[in-house]
């Protein structure tokens, strides 16, 4: 829906706060929310710019380890939403993820139920959580089209139903995005309702490590960090990333970034600051209608090599 389909620009009154408020209302219909310990520290965040407001909310609930939202509103300029929900390690639920960056020129959107386990390697996990959800991406794939090439590293944290799109910031597009956000979040809440607590210590430990790996990646490579650093300073931005946005990175596990992602190691033992070591690929949606990974015709050789083993195990063929 890149053309906007009418409705004009979003205007000065646009805000992602409606997304947050309705999502919290829907959550409270299903479970009891309590303030998360991180809420007190980050409830009031002062920015370096008078025209910018940061709103941070965080909660926990039975089955939900962390439900948090960060909204940034820059008057007549930038609107940002970072909304996520993480289950307790006793459940292998996907991670609800909604990231939106809207400027007067465009909106960059990622909306997904991020898999706890790579769906190209873990077919059972894909079948368990995504097989019945494919109609959702079919519903929105034309309205919210694939946004172009993404990094191969990022793709392993996306599910077959991910919405990755770049849109004109029109009211019509905003309404479609709101509809998709609520559809996806209600699906996540339903999965949460149905989730049965794991009793195997081994499986709980695996879930905990998988979530820690995800948090470690996001905390190190979060694309929103430069904006946060500009708005609140380097020290406060680091605290916000590690203690609020990706809280758990310092408590769910002890493995450092390079133990999970050794390809980013530099000769001096530090982490390569590059966002991607593989490079960007996947000009079009790299999953078929059943959620199986198939790659695409523009996949780079390096990215293709990285995924070929996974495709073989998954019983699919790349384009």
TrEMBL record:
Alphabetical UniProt keywords: Oxidoreductase
Superkingdom classification of source: Eukaryota
Coiled coil: none
UniProt record, GO biological process: phytochromobilin biosynthetic process
Entry keyword Oxidoreductase: yes
Keyword Oxidoreductase carried by entry: yes
A molecular function (GO) term: phytochromobilin:ferredoxin oxidoreductase activity
Pfam families in the cross-refs: Fe_bilin_red
InterPro entries from the UniProt entry: Ferredoxin-dep_bilin_Rdtase
Similarity comment text for this entry: Belongs to the HY2 family.
Name used for this protein in its record: Phytochromobilin:ferredoxin oxidoreductase, chloroplastic
Source species of the chain: Panicum hallii
């Amino acid at each position: 829906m890149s053309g906007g389909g009418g409705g004009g620009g979003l205007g000065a009154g646009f805000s992602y706060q409606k997304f947050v408020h309705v999502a919290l209302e829907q959550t409270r219909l299903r479970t009891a929310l309590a303030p998360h310990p991180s809420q007190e520290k980050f409830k009031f965040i002062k920015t370096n710019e008078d025209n910018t407001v940061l709103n941070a909310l965080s909660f926990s609930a039975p089955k939900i380890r962390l439900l948090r939202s960060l909204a940034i509103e820059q008057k007549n300029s930038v609107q940002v939403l970072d909304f996520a929900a993480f289950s307790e390690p006793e459940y292998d639920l996907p991670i609800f993820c909604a990231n939106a960056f809207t400027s007067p020129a465009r909106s960059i959107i990622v909306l997904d139920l991020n898999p706890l386990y790579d769906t190209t390697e873990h077919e059972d996990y894909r079948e368990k959580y995504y097989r019945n959800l494919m109609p959702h991406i079919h519903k929105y794939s034309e309205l919210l089209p694939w946004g172009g090439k993404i990094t191969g590293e990022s793709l392993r944290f996306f599910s077959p139903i991910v919405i990755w799109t770049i849109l004109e910031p029109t009211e019509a597009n905003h309404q479609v995005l709101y509809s998709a956000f609520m559809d996806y979040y209600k699906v996540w809440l339903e999965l949460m309702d149905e989730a049965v607590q794991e009793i195997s210590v081994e499986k709980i430990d695996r879930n905990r490590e998988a979530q820690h790996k995800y948090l470690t990646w996001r905390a190190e490579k979060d694309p929103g960090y430069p904006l946060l650093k500009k708005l609140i300073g380097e020290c406060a931005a680091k605290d916000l990333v590690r203690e609020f946005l990706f809280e758990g990175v310092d408590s769910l596990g002890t493995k450092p970034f390079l133990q999970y992602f050794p390809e980013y190691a530099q000769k001096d033992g530090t982490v390569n600051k590059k966002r991607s070591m593989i490079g960007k690929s996947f000009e079009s949606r790299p999953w078929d209608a059943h959620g199986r990974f198939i790659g695409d015709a523009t996949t780079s050789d390096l990215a293709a090599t990285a995924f070929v083993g996974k495709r073989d195990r998954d019983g699919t063929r790349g384009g």
